[in-house]
Write a structure and sequence with these properties.
Elements (H helix, E strand, L loop, with lengths): L6 H27 L9 E5 L6 H8 L3 H7 L15 E5 L17 E5 L6 H8 L3 H7 L15 E5 L68 E3 L2 E2 L7 H10 L5 H11 L8 E5 L8 E7 L10 E9 L2 E9 L3 E8 L8 E9 L4 E10 L4 E3 L6 E3 L2 E5 L9 E6 L13 E6 L7 E7 L5 H13 L1 H4 L2 H12 L12 H19 L6 H6 L4 H17 L2 H14 L28
Antiparallel strand pairs: 1-2, 3-4, 5-6, 7-8, 8-9, 9-10, 11-12, 12-13, 13-14, 13-15, 16-17, 17-18, 18-19
Length: about 575
């Protein structure tokens, strides 16, 4: 008996074939581009990482998306995706200095253009202006990890009227993150980073787990003076690890005495730094976990250092050191995942002009060394952490992280979300689920429906159909953007996607009702184009291809989703009906 493929089967086979071809083709340009990592006078290169988007890189580098695309035409792929491994050329900023910032005049300072290798500290040494004063004069340049980018113009407050030609100082401070003028900027996360592809919204910013940065408190004891129990404050921060070792080996030493000494020296401050005793090596070992800061560091967001000392028959030895990019906070020292090995869980928080991002670290002592015990480096804006056994598939406690709101108007409407990390059978923690907070914003429900649509190869089209139908029917959902006639337009988009989903799901007869309810002319035209093509060709791929051609000629059918802030996904004509590839 002769059999025929159903529409979903044909679509799946074409999709799989296209995916294989795309992967094979992507190998060629990636290999060629990787041959020339040298920066040029007009900018620098950035290697795309998993989770990067055009808008995220634009936010981190300060270069508009349009300019990035113009400089990298070969990196423009279907669906506006970026492929991990692609190398993007990041153009330098304009060669001419901008006008002075508000409150600044030509006589009150001058412009300095960032060069390759510059850091806030090298610029401070070159210009003679304190880092804190440079930050106050350039709030828009304060990014996560305190990176600077070649070509940026930095306002130097003072009496000079001419820009200084900087020279890279020898032996720049090792705790400063180098300017990424030829290396990848952070993604997070902005990207900060990594940012979720469908970033969600809460009207108010949640409370941060870590306190906001506060001015450094000066030490109450000067270097060389007696602090506690006969101990003296080291002359420089580099001397603290050895000084702590000596203190711990001294008769009568205690955690309370160590804390008092470090506090009086200024290395542990109110709300910054900690001293914790824990049994890491065995149930009776008296190991010590310390977070301390350089007493001479006057940054708004000082960088912390994590030190772990192991006790032994000959005294204490430094077993682990981690230098943070920002404030370090120890969350837990315990066998979190119940595998019989003690874990040290801490966060590293860096702050930009508007938002603080924390990165989560989990390290497990295996008897010989500390091993990373969480996949990747989970980063989130203003996170709150909790530990609880909630999933039968994980060993011990799960780690739950809630937050994600970027405190910037340019980020667009957002909602917080919760990430749950599990330790399968005691192995390294990995992301198990990501659940967004409830929202009354219709746009977020459209994002959720789009996410379900994009999962059709795994779950089919039924979840997408249900999600679009719910977005259309729920009259309590509200507008949260700035586009004209927002609710009607977004619901008509949902109806167009419902038409596509029903046809792809073998329910073409039900699509007519959704088509008839569309009132937005451009979206009605897209629906008519899709259905006419499908009736004549019987191919969903061809129907989507013609609908996207219509979208290219009629931007009103998709541009209303194109710019909802850098925390939200981009949208192009090719995204209107993304089943043509």
């Amino acid at each position: 008996m002769k059999t025929f493929d159903t529409a979903p089967q044909r679509l799946f086979r074409l999709f799989a074939l296209g995916l294989v071809l795309a992967v094979l083709l992507s190998l060629l340009p990636a290999t060629a581009l990787a041959q020339d990592p040298t920066p040029t006078a007009g900018g620098y290169y950035y290697v795309v990482r998993r989770g990067d988007t055009w808008s995220g890189i634009a936010w981190v580098t300060g270069i508009p998306v349009a300019q990035l695309k113009a400089a990298n035409p070969t990196a423009i792929h279907p669906n506006d995706w970026l492929w991990a491994g692609d190398r993007l050329f990041i153009p330098a900023r304009p060669v001419g200095p901008p006008t002075p910032p508000p409150g600044g005049t030509a006589g009150s300072g001058y412009w300095y253009q960032i060069k390759w290798g510059d850091t806030w500290y090298s610029v401070s040494r070159t210009t003679g202006v304190a880092v804190l004063d440079l930050w106050h004069a350039n709030p828009s340049l304060l990014r996560p990890n305190r990176w600077l980018y070649a070509g940026q113009w930095l306002w130097v407050p003072g009496a000079a009227t001419e820009a200084v030609e900087p020279t890279a100082p020898a032996g720049a401070g090792p705790t400063e993150t180098p300017a990424p003028v030829g290396s990848p900027p952070p993604t997070a996360a902005p990207t900060p980073a990594p940012l979720p592809t469908a970033t969600p919204v809460a009207a108010a910013r949640p409370a941060a787990t870590q306190p906001p940065p506060t001015p450094t408190i000066k030490p109450t004891v000067k270097p060389g003076q007696t602090a506690a129990a006969g101990a003296t404050c080291p002359a420089g921060f580099a001397g603290y690890p050895d000084a702590i070792t000596a203190y711990l080996k001294s008769p009568g030493s205690s955690v309370a005495g160590l804390t008092a000494w470090l506090t009086k020296c200024g290395a542990v401050k109110p709300d910054l730094g900690s001293v914790t005793q824990a049994a890491i090596q065995s149930k009776i070992s008296k190991d010590v976990v310390i977070v301390l800061y350089d007493p001479a560091d006057e940054q708004l967001n000082p960088a912390g250092t994590l030190l772990i000392y192991h006790s032994g028959i000959t005294g204490y030895t430094l077993a682990r050191r981690a230098d943070g990019a920002g404030q370090l906070t120890v969350l837990k020292v315990a066998d979190v995942n119940a595998d019989g090995k003690v874990d040290v869980v801490w966060t590293d928080t860096t702050c930009g002009a508007h938002t603080c991002f924390a990165t989560l670290f989990v390290e497990s002592w295996d008897g010989k060394e500390y091993r990373d015990w969480i996949a990747d480096e989970p980063t989130m804006a203003y996170p709150e952490y909790s530990f609880k056994d909630t999933q039968p598939g994980g060993s011990g406690d799960e780690i739950m992280v809630h937050g994600g709101i970027i405190a910037s108007a340019g980020a667009g409407p957002q909602r917080a979300w919760t990430e749950t990390y599990i330790s399968p059978e005691g192995g390294p923690y990995q992301l198990f689920s990501q659940v967004y907070d409830a929202s009354k914003c219709l746009y977020h429900h459209i994002l959720d429906a789009n996410a379900a649509f994009n999962q059709w190869t795994v779950k089919g089209f039924t979840p997408a159909i249900e999600a679009y139908q719910a977005a259309i029917a729920d009259t309590t959902l509200e507008a949260c953007g700035t586009i004209p006639d927002e609710l009607t337009t977004l619901r008509d988009f949902a109806r167009f996607r419902l038409v596509v989903s029903l046809v792809a799901n073998g329910k073409a007869s039900q699509a007519a009702a959704a088509q008839a309810a569309i009132t937005t002319p451009a979206l009605l035209g897209a629906a008519n184009t899709f259905l006419d093509s499908y009736r004549s060709s019987g191919s969903i791929v061809q129907a989507c291809r013609e609908a996207n051609s219509y979208a290219t000629a009629n931007p009103a059918s998709w541009q209303f989703l194109a710019d909802w802030g850098y925390a939200n996904p981009e949208f192009t004509a090719a995204d209107l009906c993304p089943l043509d590839r």
